[in-house]
Amino acid sequence: MTRLFPVLFLLFSGCMFSQLKFDTLSHKKLKTTVTLAILVGYHYAGDARDNTETFRASQMHIIEVVFAKIIGYGGNHGAAKVYYAGSDFIFNNRYDFFMAPKIGVSSSAGMCLGAEVQFQINFEKVIPRVMPYFGFGGSGGKLTVGYNFRLLKAENFPINTLQIGITWPIKRFKEKTI
User: Fold this and answer.
1) Are 171 and 35 in contact (CB under 8 A)?
2) What is the pLDDT of residues 66-117, one digit of tens each?
3) DSSP letter at 25?
4) Are 8 and 29 in contact (CB under 8 A)?
């Protein structure tokens, strides 16, 4: 068994850290592209902010529609940076419907990190929130987990804090190479 460890180590390190010849001498040049796109997503939040609400009353289904500027950094192992503005349309079992206009930025290269500022509106009051998120993504699409932080101290509007979601570009406009 002890003679097997060096063989497994060499096999594993050869698979994980080697590069193929066509990977380094690729025909793909490093290029930066800028694309405008419309992103659509679905998010789900099911946790209540406090223990006074039931799980069923606190469920939220969120439809996201945003206009984005996707800056893609090319090559075989590319990355992307996305600036976006749009709105969330939120359906809640307790409060029916409200909206959340927002602006945000995300960066992805396999892993996705980002943050957005939301202004959640129930047509009576506005609640500003910040939501950092992380997950997996690339080229404008992402699968994320985020947590809403309130920006007002005295807030009695029960908004779910943890949400998971997926966002994907449905329409890309003309791509510009820089």
Assistant:
1) no
2) 999 999 987 667 789 999 999 999 887 766 788 999 999 999 988 999 999 9
3) T
4) no
Between CA 22 and CA 115 the distance in angstroms is 36
56 pLDDT tier (thresholds 50, 70, 90): low
* 113 neighbors 144 (Cβ within 8 angstroms): no
DSSP H helical ranges for the chain: 4-17, 21-24, 55-58
Q: How many angstroms separate the CA atoms of 67 and 90, rounded?
A: 18
Residue type, 100: A
DSSP codes, 136-161: EEETTEEEEEEE-EES-SS--S----
Quote the tokens at residue 95. Answer: 């409060």
Q: Can you read off the two tokens belonging to residue 116?
A: 């957005």
| Structure tokens belonging to residue 51 | 């223990």
User: Which phi and psi (to 5°) does residue 176 adopt?
Assistant: -120, 125
- Residue burial 37-53, b: 16+ Cβ < 10 Å; e: rest: bbbebebebeebbeeeb
Phi, psi of 6 (to 5 degrees): -65, -35
